[in-house]
Amino acid sequence: MADRQWRGARPLKPPGQGRAAHKILAGMAVLAVLLLLSVIIPLVAQAVPALNAAFLFGRAPGSIAPEAVNTVTMVAISAAVSFPLALLAGLYLVEFARPSRWTRAFDQFTGTVLSVPSIVVGLVVVDVAVVRWHWPVSTLTGILALTLMNWPLTVALVVEALQSVPGLYRDGSWALGASRWQTVTRLILPLALPQMIEQGGMAVARLMGETAVLIYTAGVNVGPGWALGGPGESLAVHLWLLRTEGVTDLASSQAAATGVVLLGLVFLVLWGSRRLAEWLQDTA
Amino acid sequence: MRADRIAALVMKGALALFIAVWVMVAVIVGAGAWRFVSANGLVGPLVSSRWSPLAAHYGILAFVVGSMAVTGLALVLAAPGVLALSVTGARILRGAPQRAFIQILTLFVAVPSVVYGWWGLSVAVPLIRRLTGTAGFGPLSAGIVLAVMIVPTFSIMALQTLRQVPSSLVEGSLGLGASEDQTLWHVILPASRAGLSQGFLVAVGRALGETIAVQMVIGGQSRVLSLLKPGATLTTQLLTDLALMPARTPGHDALDFMALWLMILMAVLVWLQSRVRGMSRG
Amino acid sequence: MAPDIEVDSLDVWYGQARALKEVTLHLGPGKVLALIGPSGCGKSTFLRVLNRMIDRAPQVRVKGAVRVGAFEVLAGDVDVTALRRTVGMVFQQPNPFPMTIFDNVAYGPRIAGLRQMAKLRQTVEDSLKKAALWDEVRGKLRRSAMSLSGGQQQRLCIARALAVNPQVLLLDEPTASLDPVSTAKIEELIVQFKTHYTMVIVTHNLQQAARVSDAVAFFEHGRLVEMGPTHDIFTAPRERRTEEFLTGRV
Lengths: 284, 282, 250
Known about the structure:
A: mainly alpha; MetI-like fold; 11 helices; B: mainly alpha; two-stranded antiparallel sheet; 12 helices; 2 strands
């Protein structure tokens, strides 16, 4: 229908009166966003001189490649270990256990261990793995530390994703004679998966940036090649070390470049997990 | 149903492992803290600010005060930004710009703290140095860095809360002749009290537990609060001394004592959060 | 003094979708107009134009003129807050603020700048009495408004609207979510309010329209099909569409 008469009507603007505070807050928000951008833009600007193929992929000392490999492998392995464990625990809590005093106490427990500062986890891993078990300061110990860090967060995100599936669906499935296990695997998990993947992406991104927990567990050195027992300095630790110990001009641009690579990996993980979640949502 | 029973057993196992491991973590920290308390008493170390492990003096007052000051400062500095960003994102922007705004904030939530630390060293510390004529390292710089770091997290939580205020309440207020501003102050913000408190507690936890970004700019000296001179917090002192004090030495037990306090504080914050959630239902 | 309402060839668009087409009507002072019609026919849009609540929808465009008493509602320079104080609104779902009963009713006067506690108390008491809620809540004014039943909450919302001394009341399906007893109480109030306030009520309940209104306007597809005295519309509608709607042959 070619109803073009709306062009003749005048737009009705919301009244301008009594919006002064909103305008001030919007102005402050612009300043706040600029402040946040001031974290990223100088980082990229300083990184430019150091961002070249030799720095990114080279085999010579000073290249960031070993740190990047350490970061990706340690994060991937700890996520691969902690996610299934957390999934099973979360499934039990939401789909099998009856809500009670104990499940509520468990919420408090998860919430607490999930916010234990990473340096405290580092302290415990050093005490147990390095001192008592004589593990080397290495990727292996780093993986243990990261797994421990990631576990509670993953349990929490699994529980949250499962709880976001309406209870009516479960009733519907049980009413058709499905067992709990069938209900969970065929109905609940597919529905909860997109949210789990998106939140899981946030968790993995956080692991990539973990610093304090890795300094004394994975260490501040890299080896000639990747090894499970070899030195395991990550990108974040490298950035920290360069920026707190390095004094040359080169160090500061290399530190910035390391930060840019780290940010690139973090954003890649976020973007990838979001796309995957959207794709799953669309195909469901 | 057999499958159900087997599945439940495996899941219970995974849950038990999770609980057992983290209880062990608490026991290990607790044991060290217990040895420390038996040797040094409970109150003494908390009210003394003399930290000289070589002389067997373990006063942690300076670190406790440092942690509280840095956290408090960060929250005060972050508050206006959080208010502005959350109101803009929830009540001013709509549609596609609103979605883009939220995605940008989410990206900043994911920026690693070591990058915020880098910003502190490259931007905040030199700025403080120029403005005050001091070295620039200290709780003030740490508070600024932490503020910038918690703004995205806190803002996103506040934004989601403000967005959930039913439009029927907003229209009820506007229908009585209230302006947009009056509606914001008198209806939207009070109705969001529970969610805002929750975001506040999460922000407190994040600031209190942050290690690396604070350590990079605070300077690392044990002195009781001077905003412009190098100081330390519970977490930064743990990071500094972890390498210096080998396990099973009295100094190491002092680290466990500090770690236990941090864990207790986190438990209190989580408990408060559950109370706040109850409040929103009632 | 209750004002009259005059609408002259009013058009409303949401973006490019036309919600109202050339609506023209006049409602005398102190009269009750019931708006009826199928869902999506534009009656809620029409109601929300009268106190400019329509502003909240994105990309709204209007044409024509609307006058409520002395207010040129669609004029660019109209004082919207003053208009909304004069034209009170009651919504489909009771929407008390999450505050005490007292603070709910005192909200409007406080917003308008009234600070004296004695006057506030008097206003709250008068408004609650007018809304026939006073006997049920006296001595409980410090309790949360959420502790009231649905019907009580709706009467609280009416009291809240009355507290700012409006001259017009807009009621958007005020009993749609209420049980029959609560509905009867609200209808009783509307009948009592006649001549004191000019009222416009949207309702899906034709019996309700017949019981409370002086005039009925039937909307369909954004057009005002027919408007007339309630008795005439229900007994002898002029338009065939009106008759079909009233007899259920939509």
